[in-house]
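Extended Data, panel c. Modelled sequence:
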Amino acid sequence: MKLLLTGASGFIGQHLLNDLNDVIRFDKSSGNKNILDVTLLDDVITASKGCNGIIHMAAISRVSDCENDPKKCIDVNVNGTLNILDAAVKNNLEWIGLVSSGEVQWIENNEVQSFKKINNIYGISKLACEMLVDVIGNKSGLKSTIYRISSVVFGENDNPDKVLPLFVTKSINGDDIRINDASYEWDFIHVDEVVNVIKKSIYDKKENEDYIKEINIFSGIRLDLLSLAKIISYLSSSTSKIYLIDSLVDKVTSSEFNKIVKQRKISDEFLSKVSDLISSKSQIKV
């Protein structure tokens, strides 16, 4: 299957690009000789000719970026997705895969339960993208898969400002880690696991009678920031001090580490992936 991959220079896109065969790279990165723009319909139509499908990952994906520039968010995320769908229909493609977000996790039983639960521009844009795929796919008979990532994805070449790589860097350097809220929990998943789910679904030979398929991607490993900081501190043998608000947290002992691992049902694979990330960053002068 020949595929067009948009957003190929992004964090997940890079890993997916390296793990797929017969893929055309489509993005605006300076590393790509052909500068292509998902907001330009002609670019998408031309690039997708002769393809069997499109994996659409190009997006403004940080909530803060969308809040700071809502027009750009809507242009790239919503209008870009509309261009992908138009190009797929015009070129008679077999399938598209849309990478969406857990911001749209309140879609249950294939129906949107409430728009009021979306409290940011990014979530609105992703919901609109999913609805476009639904409506246009239904009218045109275009089959599609929505990959709804409901996790914080981490791994090599991740954005250094994201929480997990940031905690790793601080732990390696012995810098203080300050946490203002330990009540909220996030699901954490390694990028390889995300890529494997997407790759498996692309090459799944089972016929799907529905024109649209939804795949929710998550690991089930949920951690608050304090627990995450303790795990990283222990695995890196860090001298960093951890503060919860203004209170200094006691040094993480092996018994406390094991208690967190047991209570949170953290897999050996997850710990191994975090350890690998610590090791790779330790070899670089951070």
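The radius of gyration is 20 Å. This feature is highlighted in the accompanying rendering.
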